[in-house]
From TrEMBL:
Protein name according to UniProt: Glycosyltransferase RgtA/B/C/D-like domain-containing protein
Transmembrane segments: 7-26, 84-104, 111-128, 134-159, 171-197, 203-218, 230-249, 269-290, 319-340, 352-371, 378-396
Keywords: Membrane, Transmembrane, Transmembrane helix
Amino acid sequence: MKNKAGIYFLILAPIIAFYIFVYKNAFNIGWNDDWHGIEGFLASWMQQTTFWEKITLLFSQMCEHRIIYVRLSTLLCYNLFGEVNYKILMLMGVSYLLILPFVFYRLLKEINVGLAYLVPIIFIVFNTQPIENIFWAITSLQPNVVIIFGLWGFGLLLFNKKAWAFYLANVLFFVAMFTNGNGMFSFLAAIPVILYARTKSEKIQFAAIVAFSFWLYFHNFQKPGIRPDVMVNITQFPHIIVADFFAFFGSPIDSTVQVYNITVKHTVAIIMGLLMIGWLAVMLFTFLYYRFYPKAKKNMHNWFYRLYNKLMQYPKFNLYLLAAFIFVGLSGAAFAASRASQGIEQAFASRYKTVSLIMFIILYLSTFNILPASRWKNYLRISIIAGLLFNLFSYYESWDDVENRRRFFGTTILNWKNNGRYYYYAFENSRNPDDHAPITQYQRLPIPPFNYAGFVPGIMKYVNDILWISRVHFKNYTPPAEIDVMNKALYENQVASTGGEAVKITDGFNTFRIELANVFVPFGTRYDGYYAIFTNDKNRLAFPLETQANKFTNFLSTQRFYNNQIDAIVAKPDIPSGQFSMKIGKLENNQFKVIKEQTISIQ
């Protein structure tokens, strides 16, 4: 790696590719928590009259979190651009990833290696697996930012003796804590760093800051009823907690990219997580044993004692890895304990993968403790090749997810545009007049409830109240021009299909199950694909029929990116009551080719 130009290319190319990918695919549209967490907050902010009311709102609970950084980012975006622009908010969230190369480069200087050793870290950090970060503003500004601020703070405490670095680190930990619940672990993970690197006065100040932060966070804290009880999870689902914990960290090695078998996917992730955590635990216990057990035999012929000596050779380097390991490990443990009853598949949610990817970086860096310096260059070459393949494979894995999300969000905007509301919830209790009536007048909103509306009856009226206030006060919600093109194609440019697709529709109690065979969707199209549309005199709704990408083994044998089967569900509560014409067809070249049509009735 003597060629500096080559090194800079390997560092800059994945960063530039990542941000081009984000910019091209991110949508200026909210999703899920965004409505109450961002627009609901801003609508409420404008209705609070006193300074104390605004501060109370800023620190108010949302679910089990306090999300002050999300709210400050919302205010900043609105005051700078005059609107809540979700694409800007998502770009703000992923822009903080640019902090990490500087943090890890400073760490690498502790073991006296050059810039080339940063390259594998770049491939891991600027990875598209956390795909929800570019479709869900809150997740981009919440778990993403928390981890970055914590890692930045550890570096400030260890590598800068100035007082401002101490206070900035504590501000970062405080903001992390009040952005996502696991941010509080940054304070706990920093304790070994504080004890080693900071003055007596700073240690006392740190203790006071921690005490105040925890008091403020839990002052008047209410347990959200929408979340499973952690103690119930611990007593009833301990085996799932353990599986979730290891699968959480092994999830970036998603074996379903290669095969369809879910059991294989879970097993591979758990084994990978177990190996990573196991190795890092061996390093930690080796250090603790020789450092604090006076009777430990210190024999250089013992591999563990040689490992201990290597750890002590680079104290700041390994202390940073320890803090990062504690922070990320506790975050994963909290996730597993809180989500166990919801099933192991939660461990693969893309919004959490930034946390998991940091564990891969810790693993990469920890390996320098067992390799002789003479082999570091060979290890670097292997790491660059592995990191490059991992990075490229993340684009392959996430591409169809991006396209399906674009289709989903496109039809969501279209349904809002055509029906005077945004979207419906597929719950039995959503068959409620308030939930399906278009909002036509301004209504005053309270501070969003901490047990937020997303899981209680009346959610759609609440969301559409927010939308109305948003239109009136701080956003015009003009759909992108491409949505108008899709609207015309779906409802006006209809032709009979001449393809060979076969359709089967099963009318269930609360759903329509739609199965298609012999389908074909070109790779890389924006909205082309299969849809179910429902029309009558009052309503026009469209639902994408998600096409699943072929896994790697099938792709090699068929050379087709998408599978030729569709098995999709359309929930009846997503459709207003009445009689509809239901058409199943394919959108292609700005035409909707109708494969099957029938009349259905929604009660």
